Amino acid sequence: MRPIIGVTMGDAAGIGPEIIAKALSIREIYELCRPIVIGDAHVIKETVKIIGVDTRVNSLHDIGKAKFDFGTIDVLDMSNIDLSNLRVGQVDAMAGKAAVQYVETAVRLALDGKIHAIATAPINKEAISIAGCPYAGHTELLAHLTDTRNYAMMLIVGSLRVVHVTTHVSMRKACDMIKKRRVFDVIQLANQALLRMGTKKPRIAVASFNPHAGEGGLFGTEEIEEIKPAVDLARIEGLDVLGPFPPDTVFVKARGGAYDAVVAMYHDQGHIPVKLLGLEWNEKEGRWTSVTGINVTIGLPIMRSSVDHGTAFGKAWKGTANPQSMIEAIRFAASVA
Questions:
Q1: Which residues are paired to 263 by β-bridges?
Q2: 289 pLDDT higher than 90
Q3: 200: how many CB neighbours lie within 10 A of its CB?
């Protein structure tokens, strides 16, 4: 039986509706799963017109009414976007509030077993903040909604998988958060996630925080005091993990097949190699020619994957957004579910 994947619409003022409509115009998606959009049906209808696909929109309030047929986009209609007042391509409190409601609904459905996984379109952190959401992004919001304390962000592009010890915090705060317990927990989460994804004997590398892995304490002591002890503890527990290694080479080796995942210490340390591999910008054409890679929240009691890019307000509602990452996120959610 094909799994039911709840696809949250994300920020209506951004490219979320468009990349969803484009992804769900591909027959293969319906061969892999039964997708249902959790969003606003009027927005999806307008998006279908903009991109010019021969697809109808089935607005419903009960998943039991979904058709799950290629050529029809089923939308669990929250009816929470007033199109006449939507500020397309801008930070909009209404869109931010609605985006949070889509995630809340999807989580509730997943916990109740009515959908088997969630694939999320991008939300805007400023928009959800001015709408009153106290969480920095999807990852933190999902953890709150599922009452999960031990979780992490995993980015995937091709064979490269990166898991983060810290994410949406300042660099100054990240320094304080890199502790033996947290690093050990993330190593364990990475190992569990890889097993769930079908890797029989996960090999994990841990990146250092300081240049040259601290150079024996010359450039910092986090490796000596926190990171290496966490790696040693994980090895005692039987995990195949090595490090800490200098981050300027460890991602290259992982990409070459030496490791199944890399544990990164902070947001940009992990995001930069993934986006360097997954994104391609053509200056002459003024567009992204490749937008690949996905974001997976590991440690949750539910399966959630997401695009690995933002709301791209500059491209919103123009019909030119690249749906590659959304397609990959739905495929991944379906395969794991």
A1: 163, 206
A2: no
A3: 7
Q: Cβ neighbours of residue 198 under 8 Å, at least 6 residues apart?
A: none
Query: Which residues belong to CATH 3.40.718.10 in the chain?
Result: 4-148+300-336, 152-275
Pick the CATH number of 152-275 from 3.90.120.10, 3.40.50.620, 3.40.718.10, 3.40.1000.10: 3.40.718.10
Closest CA to 277 of 293, 263, 289: 293
Q: Nearest Cα to 265, choosing from 213, 307, 306, 310?
A: 213
Please report which confidence band the pLDDT of residue 291 belongs to, taking 50, 70 and 90 as the band edges: confident
Side-chain half-sphere exposure of 278, counting CA atoms within 13 A: 28
Buried b (16+ CB within 10 A) or exposed e, 307-325: bbbebbbebbbeebbbbbb
Block residue for tokens 């047929």: 69
Please state which CATH class domain 4-148+300-336 belongs to.
Answer: alpha beta
**Cβ-contact 206, 159 below 8 angstroms:** no
**What amino acid is encoded at 337 in this protein?**
A
Whole-angstrom CA distances from 269 to 192, 206, 234, 308 are 22, 12, 22, 15
Whether residue 41 contacts residue 59, with contact meaning beta carbons closer than 8 Å, is answered with yes
90 — phi, psi (to 5°)? -135, 160
Q: What is the pTM of this model?
A: 0.91
Chain mean pLDDT for the chain? 96
Backbone torsions φ then ψ of 324, nearest 5 degrees:
-50, -50
The candidate with the shortest Cα–Cα distance to 282, out of 270, 291, 271, is: 291
**Interval 69-91 mean pLDDT:** 97
